[in-house]
UniProtKB/TrEMBL annotation:
CDD domains found in the cross-reference section: POD-like_MBL-fold
Native species: Sordaria macrospora
Gene3D superfamilies xref list: Ribonuclease Z/Hydroxyacylglutathione hydrolase-like (3.60.15.10)
A molecular function (GO) term: sulfur dioxygenase activity
Domain of life: Eukaryota
GO terms of biological process kind: glutathione metabolic process; hydrogen sulfide metabolic process
InterPro entries, A to Z: Metallo-B-lactamas (IPR001279), Mito_Persulfide_Diox (IPR051682), POD-like_MBL-fold (IPR044528), RibonucZ/Hydroxyglut_hydro (IPR036866)
Protein name per the record: Metallo-beta-lactamase domain-containing protein
Length: 317
């Protein structure tokens, strides 16, 4: 495979119309979290945060999120929004924890307001309600624990501000029906729509997932200018082959993506994706992640998560 174009540093900006971008890779869940800041105002957003969870002990910890908070404070950023691209099935979101830590008190010891006195909104695309209802029914989640859990649900193509920068919400269904991406400057944060070209595309077998829709969403990404950067939600490099890469360009995705580069027909992709998905195992943190994430990062009030049993067909409860 032809190598992609070498990447310049991802977190630098010499233009007032382009954000400063920091990325953090969580090796336990292969997840990228992004911190995206306006260089002139230092207002910033967080995209797809991670809460640490040990399934062997059911213990939650905040090491990864606290590292992000340390970076935010060291850079003197004011977080105005905490964004989710979709309800993740492979990690727990730290959105509620971050919001709480950024607003637990109105002032610091030296009298300055915490986070500029701003309570950052936890935001997601408007189709979240559809997903919440599906998993609330599946896991028996009380309505009062998920309804209105997100502070803001975006309309398609809705604009929002990050200091002097503008962000735009792009509906990118396929992996999940609620999936959105966030366009800021010449950067699209596409969540689980596309991965690194050598990894390909996301699975489409979750409730409401659709390989036809994912193909169309990728064409939306491919319609962006060739130099735009596509920041992905995960990376899965083969052992010791390379370090995790947070982004590639639209041009490299169109030229190199192993699942649906330029010239791949919808029929070819859909047939391959559906066959591939039929043999995939479920994510390791599927049940824990979904129950926390439809609550926008809040924990169940009774402190209990449900994990369904898989039993031989002849067994009876």
């Amino acid at each position: 495979m032809t190598p992609p174009t070498p990447l310049p540093p991802a977190n630098m900006s010499s233009s007032p119309t382009e954000p400063i971008i920091h990325h953090n890779f969580d090796p336990q869940t292969s997840t990228f979290t992004y911190l995206v800041a306006c260089p002139s105002t230092l207002h910033a957003i967080v995209i797809d945060s991670v809460l640490d969870f040990d399934p062997s002990t059911s213990r939650i910890s905040t090491t990864t999120a606290d590292s992000l908070l340390s970076l935010i404070r060291s850079k003197n950023y004011t977080i105005v929004k905490i964004l989710e691209t979709h309800v993740h099935a492979d990690h727990l979101t730290a959105s509620r924890y971050l919001q709480t830590q950024l607003t637990t008190s109105t002032s610091s010891n030296d009298g300055e307001e915490v986070n500029g006195g701003i309570k950052p909104e936890i935001c997601i695309g408007k189709r979240i309600v559809e997903v919440q209802q599906v998993f609330a029914d599946k896991y028996g989640i009380p309505r009062e624990e998920w309804e209105g859990a997100f502070d803001k649900v975006f309309e398609d193509e809705e604009e929002f501000s990050v200091g002097n920068l503008k962000g735009t919400v792009k509906h990118l269904p396929g992996h999940t029906p609620d999936h959105v991406g966030y366009l800021v400057g010449s950067n699209i944060f596409c969540g689980d729509s596309l991965f690194d070209p050598e990894v390909g595309s996301a699975r489409c077998d979750f409730p409401g997932g659709d390989a036809h829709a994912l193909y169309n969403s990728v064409q939306t990404l491919f319609s962006l200018p060739a130099h735009y950067k596509v920041y992905t939600g995960h990376d899965y490099p083969s052992a010791d082959s390379r370090s995790p890469q947070p982004y590639t360009t639209v041009a490299d995705q169109k030229r190199l993506n192993k699942h649906l580069k330029d010239g791949t027909t919808k029929e070819q992709f859909v047939n391959w994706r559906q066959e591939r998905d039929s043999g995939l195992a479920e994510p390791k943190l599927l049940h824990q992640a979904l129950q926390v994430n439809v609550r926008a990062g809040r924990m169940p009030r009774d402190g209990m998560l449900k994990v369904p049993l898989k039993m031989p067909g002849e067994w009876k409860l």
